[in-house]
């Protein structure tokens, strides 16, 4: 259940209560694609970096180790040892990312596995069954994510099919949650708004899926080719049509500046691989901007990645040491960078929540927006 605590302009401060714990919103979800954060970070580390929600990938876990195996092992919470909320995506993003390996029909999508090329079929029912086996807290509806800009007529037909798929998802999840041996009978289904970059399609689709009164709604199909200004425009267009009493999830976004702009436009929850992917390439996010630890200027720098930061990396190690680890190809360098960036993202959202609590989010936004994403 979503509870709106405060609002400043369109920015919302709320909580979302689930069977696996309460999420303080706005929030950032930490992406554990195959059940772990890339960079040798386990679920036990996530508490130390202030993580609230772990996000796992339905498609990848279906391939390895297999969703039925995860179910036999007690579901994702037992399997990964993460005891907080888990969101699983639907596999629908692979409809977009594996465009050259797919065939879309009304029934669903046939993929060629990126691992060995064997054929995989996934439709709304299969996606719900896989996510039920995984036992996640929140399951995302099966949809098609289109590249931007898609042709208008294609986008119109695609979202009509996505809507039909959503009704099938809901019917199947209701059936699965009623089974006596389901891993998580309280699993929540969130719908996904699509419509490419077309205002009228976005609004019409949001009106349609809002009628289902689902526990949450995502805005999908953004940050896939369009400019940031177009993304922000879509958020503004959708704002009046998003249910006020449900969480709003902007999928796959983004930079610290994107998060600030999203919150400013009413978004409650985000996910992105950026903090971990960039960390593994030596980029550290800080309140002053982004540092590239691969640069030679850090060879003798005895400061932490960010002065005053309380993450596990900054408490114990210097920029010089982490620079050395990265240049040497040592896994520890990537691990420390990932821990720092996740800590930064999670505590950045804590700062945003504190600003909303204090009624000074607008000041925080203007004081921060130009610095957090600049290159140092």
TrEMBL record:
Substrate binds at residues 89-93, 143, 194, 221. It catalyses: 7-aminomethyl-7-carbaguanine + guanosine(34) in tRNA = 7-aminomethyl-7-carbaguanosine(34) in tRNA + guanine. The keyword Transmembrane helix does not apply. The active site is at 89 (proton acceptor), 271 (nucleophile). Its cofactor is Zn(2+). It holds the Pfam family TGT. Binds 1 zinc ion per subunit. InterPro entries: ArchSynthase1/Queuine_TRR, TGT, TGT-like_sf, tRNA_ribo_trans-like. GO terms for molecular function: metal ion binding; tRNA-guanosine(34) queuine transglycosylase activity. Pathway: tRNA modification; tRNA-queuosine biosynthesis. One of its GO terms (biological process) is tRNA queuosine(34) biosynthetic process. Zn(2+) binds at residues 309, 311, 314, 340. Its EC number is 2.4.2.29. Homodimer. Within each dimer, one monomer is responsible for RNA recognition and catalysis, while the other monomer binds to the replacement base PreQ1. Catalyzes the base-exchange of a guanine (G) residue with the queuine precursor 7-aminomethyl-7-deazaguanine (PreQ1) at position 34 (anticodon wobble position) in tRNAs with GU(N) anticodons (tRNA-Asp, -Asn, -His and -Tyr). Catalysis occurs through a double-displacement mechanism. The nucleophile active site attacks the C1' of nucleotide 34 to detach the guanine base from the RNA, forming a covalent enzyme-RNA intermediate. The proton acceptor active site deprotonates the incoming PreQ1, allowing a nucleophilic attack on the C1' of the ribose to form the product. This is Queuine tRNA-ribosyltransferase. It comes from Caproicibacterium argilliputei.
């Amino acid at each position: 259940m979503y509870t709106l605590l405060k609002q400043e302009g369109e920015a919302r401060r709320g909580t979302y209560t689930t069977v696996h714990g309460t999420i303080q919103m706005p929030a950032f979800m930490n992406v554990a694609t195959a059940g772990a954060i890339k960079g040798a970070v386990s679920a036990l580390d996530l508490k130390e970096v202030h993580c609230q929600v772990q996000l796992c990938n339905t498609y990848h876990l279906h391939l390895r180790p297999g969703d039925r195996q995860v179910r036999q092992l007690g579901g994702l919470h037992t399997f990964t040892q993460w005891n907080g909320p888990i969101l699983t995506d639907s596999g629908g993003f692979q409809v977009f990312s594996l465009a050259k390996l797919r065939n879309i029909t009304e029934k669903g999508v046939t993929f060629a596995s990126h691992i060995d090329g064997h054929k995989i079929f996934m439709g709304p029912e299969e996606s719900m069954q896989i996510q039920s086996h995984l036992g996640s807290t929140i399951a995302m509806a099966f949809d098609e994510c289109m590249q931007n800009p898609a042709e208008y007529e294609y986008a119109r037909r695609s979202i009509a099919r996505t809507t039909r798929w959503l009704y099938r998802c809901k019917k199947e999840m209701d059936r699965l949650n009623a089974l006596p041996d389901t891993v998580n009978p309280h699993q929540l289904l969130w719908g996904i708004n699509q419509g490419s970059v077309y205002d009228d399609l976005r609004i019409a689709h949001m009106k349609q899926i809002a009628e289902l009164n689902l526990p949450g709604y995502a805005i999908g199909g953004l940050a896939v080719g369009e400019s940031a200004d177009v993304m922000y425009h879509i958020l503004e267009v959708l704002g009046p049509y998003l249910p006020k009493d449900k969480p709003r999830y902007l999928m796959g976004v983004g930079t610290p500046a994107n998060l600030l702009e999203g919150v400013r436009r009413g978004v409650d929850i985000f996910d992105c691989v950026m903090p971990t992917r960039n960390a593994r390439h030596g980029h550290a996010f800080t309140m002053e901007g982004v540092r590239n630890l691969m640069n030679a200027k850090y060879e003798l720098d005895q400061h932490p990645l960010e002065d005053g930061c309380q993450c596990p990396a900054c408490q114990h190690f210097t920029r010089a040491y982490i620079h050395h680890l990265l240049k040497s190809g040592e896994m520890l360098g990537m691990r420390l960078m990932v821990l720092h960036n996740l800590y930064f993202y999670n505590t950045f959202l804590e700062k945003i929540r504190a600003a909303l609590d204090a009624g000074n989010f607008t000041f925080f936004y203007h004081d921060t927006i130009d610095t957090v994403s600049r290159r140092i």
